[in-house]
Amino acid sequence: MAALINVPSKAKRGEIIEIRTLTSHIMETGFRHTADGKLVPRDIITSFICRYNGAEVFRADLFPAIAANPYLSFFTVAKESGKFEFEWIGDNGYSSTASASITVE
Amino acid sequence: MPTTRRQFLNLAGGVTVAGTVPIVTLRPLQATPAMLNAAIRNLVGEAQLRNGRIRLDIPPLVENGNTVPMTVSVANPMTADDYVKSIHVFNEKNPQPNIGNFYLGPSSGRAQVSTRIRLADTQKVVAIARLSDDTFWQVAADVVVTLAACTEEMN
């Protein structure tokens, strides 16, 4: 699945950087009905994890009240050059990953 | 003893009445303030819930409840021994009281999270921050929603 990741490519050591992520997902709430009255089964992303060179720096539990195509923005301290890895996990075995690298001077 | 006509009719009538008593246990379509309180108690336990330190930025009036931008920030340093552990966001009237839980740490640098949420009705949104010393801080915001989300029919 397509994901948009926004991580600064360069940062000074110790700088607080903002990370923004957007992934495409329907986030079906499980509370909606079709026109003929059938309940549409829930299909959402339930958790999001961000790791910085292998160490978890941010994690989120998502619920049906998160809008479709979940957008998340959060902060972290740029400590060293390396890689950010992002993982989305959801209903029906959904799993999606993305990564971004950063150079810290 | 033979059953009299009156006894028989009483019995039959009783059965019919019992048979038509609707046995309906519907889950409420909306999270009630009681569900909101229960969800908050579930997180906080017996700890005291204080006002302040946390800030919730959400538009007071939204046209479309399907995507409402929201930012939560906590005015607290993020050092190794004093930091924000987590931020939890709840609502009052969606079918479910939870919106999201966000887990931070000293390496977050700044305790601020943004996302987009769904609101099924005009209601109160509550954000709670848990600090590293296990104190809880809350803030609430009222949002007026003109087009509801979550439970509408699919086309």
UniProtKB/TrEMBL annotation, chain A:
Gene3D superfamilies: Immunoglobulins (2.60.40.10). InterPro entries: Ig-like_fold, Ig_E-set, SoxZ, SoxZ_dom. It comes from the Bacteria. Pfam families: SoxZ (PF08770). Residues 8-100 form the Sulphur oxidation protein SoxZ domain. This is Sulfur compound chelating protein SoxZ. It comes from Bradyrhizobium yuanmingense. The lineage of its organism: Bacteria, Pseudomonadati, Pseudomonadota, Alphaproteobacteria, Hyphomicrobiales.
From TrEMBL, chain B:
Pfam families: SoxY. Residues 41-150 form the Ig-like SoxY domain. It comes from the Bacteria. This is Sulfur-oxidizing protein SoxY.
